[in-house]
Request: fold
Amino acid sequence: MNIIVCVKRVPFTQEVDLEIEAGKREVDRESLAYVVNDWDNYAIEEAVRLKEQGEGTVTAITLGPEEDEEVLRRCLAMGADRARRIDPGERTLDGQGVARVLARGLAGIPFDLILCGVQAEDDNQGMVGIMMAEHLGLAHAVVVTGIEPQEGKLIVQCELEGGLDERSKIKLPALLTIQTGINEPRYVSIMGIKKAAKKPLEVIPLAALNLSPDDLAPQVLIEELFLPPETGGAEMITGDPAQAAEKILQILKEKGVRA
Amino acid sequence: MGGIFVVVEHRQGKVREITLEMLAKAGEWKNDLGGDLTAVLLGWETGSLIEALKGRADRILVIEDERLKNFEAEVYKLILQQLIQEVHPSLTLIGQTSWGLDLAPCLAVKTGFPLVTDCVELRIEAGRPTALRQMYGGKIFARVSFKESPGYLATIRPGAFSPDPSEDHQTEVIKKQFPAGLPESKKQFLELIESEAGEVDISQADFLVSVGRGVGEEENLALVRELARSLGAVLSCSRPIVDKKWLPKYHQVGTSGKSVKPKVYLALGISGAFQHLAGISGAGTVIAVNKDPRAPIFRVAQYGVAQDLFKIIPALMEQINRN
Reply:
């Protein structure tokens, strides 16, 4: 099975104080560290595992500036065979634009299956994968927590709400969006990334894809970003840890869960 | 032309709460947009579903067919596209759920309408919606506008709105035929699987000590486990802990895990993704400990401690042991 995995490099924001740029349309990314999008990390792992079960190739693809090749090299170190970066140049795209570019930009790569993450950690949109599937006329399934190849088809398990999962049979070629927890992504060492540097990584400029300005024009615009109020509505317990602990125990007593 | 479509989400013969939430709120938006509020119901054996929707929309558009017994995004997309072409709703609302994630993006491409996902608020100004949504796991809010279009698509976050309608609608039920000539679906439903029961049932616990990503390493879990035991609480967790296989799934609180309703929920190192917060809406008192004062969990907690859990847990243990 030949598999394409779409990956995105995103800022690492866990326990990081985010700031908004003066224009109020973007987060100040200057001081942020970058990582591979968590969902995509599971997707690339799943692709490599599927490849290891049989035959075929895994290609990692991303849309972004040169720095984003960092996540492609990581994918190559995890076991992808080759990588492609589409360079957007100066153009800013919204979700539907990204989907159009990726759908067009994977031309020439043989595939039976495309894997994307359920969503990206930064935008939290969850739309690009399924939009790509529609552009390419592929079968699709979302929030996938299990994949089992079976005679030219796949049995997929998808997470619904309330602890329910759904199993279905899907025809290939297909696009699946992968949920976190589907597997345990392998560790990537610096050495591994160095070794994978010999694997092919091609760059295609957006202009080479022959998409019209209409195709690329954003349909959705961010008017304003703002920070939520600090600590919301909670009554904040201050003081040193001992004082905070004392107050917590007192609340537990008041609420009747502790003698 | 005009009006609002709400795509009815249902499972195992029941209308899902998100549908009632969208209908209740859409009743308000309709006043700014003009036209009717239409619930679009695609399914099989829809009798009780129609009953549950009566009074909540001006119209229920029903297509009942055995081929609609199980949700299939590809089929829904084609039928909805046809209905949108016939009725021309200005706005089509879909839940930000597993259904919505599968359906809304492909419907957007098919219709060419702009889509904003996971909206927590929507406003109609001069016939065009602007939406409020969250980014970076709830750390940033964004106000977004749609490019001018004959129709707009939005997915709505579950729990963002109350399911109680502000007005009672006279509901007209219109039944339509399953469209002819639809291609065979590329995906075939097999079965639903309930997650396995575990040693403890967190949904029945009165007191939960719950741990999230902030715990950092697997070996630190022992601290939290010991705290829970000392306090006589049941241990639960957020999604990242189960993703890493540090605890079995039956400990997981949230939309894909379990909804809980303890008297007290003590959240340690949980930032509060909306899927998690949805699972604790029934909790009596939420006490949250998180280093980040902007963590979304503090927006639903009654009490907050913006400190390192590795300082708070030992302090708690010391005082518990002293008494």
User: Anything to note?
Assistant: Residues 233-259 of chain A form one domain. Chain A has a mean pLDDT of 95. Chain A touches chain B through 87 residues (CB under 8 Å).
